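Suppose a classmate hands you a notebook page containing two proteins, each written out with its sequence and a corresponding row of structure tokens. How would you begin to make sense of it? This section walks through that situation. The first entry is reproduced here exactly as it would appear on such a page.
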Amino acid sequence: MDILDVKEVNSEVDYTPIFHAPEEVRGYVNIRGQLYLLLDLRLILGYAGKKVDEESRMVLFKSEVGEPFGILVDKIGDTIIVEEDRIENRRKEHRESEGFPEDSERRSLELGEGVCRLEDGLVVIVNSRNLLNI
């Protein structure tokens, strides 16, 4: 994600569930009097749910990204700088070759801005501005 979209990363992951909401919606959190909708990134991307543990974090986004919301992530890793010319646009290539898929794979493609190859793996760049549109 673009670090400029992030307001804060919070290790306190207490939330109030919203009954009858889609499973991707964990609930609401109250941070200093501001209510944030909390989404589970694992479920949005089609992975199995996971219990909150000591490494779980909430990533809260700035108001320019959308309504007050955040995502629940498994843990926070390193912050890296990726040159724009190293980002491969997966969505464009996938649409041209195979058509547009359905369900969780479609969600992943809509959220992903692209992929960047690193020496020790891949980095998928997620567009935080599309998270509320899924």
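The notebook's second entry, a different protein, reads as follows.
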Amino acid sequence: MVKGRILKKMGYLADQQGIINRYLREAGGWDSHLLKCRDYILDKLNKYSPAVVTVLGSGWLLDVPLEELAEKCNTINLVDINHPPQVARKVKQYPGVNLIKDDITGGLIEHIWKSGTEITDPSLVKVPVYSPSYDPGMVISLNVLTQTDTLISDYLGRKGHSDISSLRALRGEIQSAHLSFLLKHPSILITDYSELIFDKDALFAQNELLFVELPPGSETTEWEWDFDNSGEYYKRKRLLFKVMAIDYVKRG
């Protein structure tokens, strides 16, 4: 179990709080994205009728159709490295819901924390595949694929690792390990894959967020997420994410 002080110093707690702050500040700008996430999950829930569902990156439950999951499934595992107190209180009304505090990088976060100053080449870091102690059933990776590698890369950057290619290689390994876990189970993936930065109405820059090729699934859906219109994330710029949802439950 990763200690709270480690999560605080590595920036995980601030990032989690930043998500809810930005959601509240955007005043409805996220609603379309969140609705599409929930609708996609419910479509797969109705299609496959799993008894057990595990949500990786449950966070504030903004994109989780919790009530419907609780009605249709016997067990719902909500997995995150930290569960806000508000979420812990909310889920008490659902007897089949388990809050699981876990590092879905398989212990990499604590390893990076302990070894950060000793790491000479991030690309040589061995990245484990998550191995839970519970039955995950159908797995939903929910807007988390590009988060963990970013936070680890940013932390190493603050520790003096400035070799962009080495950090990109590590980020690719983290994403690959996450995908390896998903492909071991019936799963769906919802992730951002590209960020578009606008200055007024003109495209200012575009950054790709994936460092691996996503395996094909049985169905793929895409949409756009108006992430930041207030110019807080990139000063005086508007940020939009391209999002992809992939069905890996039955791959043919």
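A careful reader of the second entry would note: The mean pLDDT is 94.
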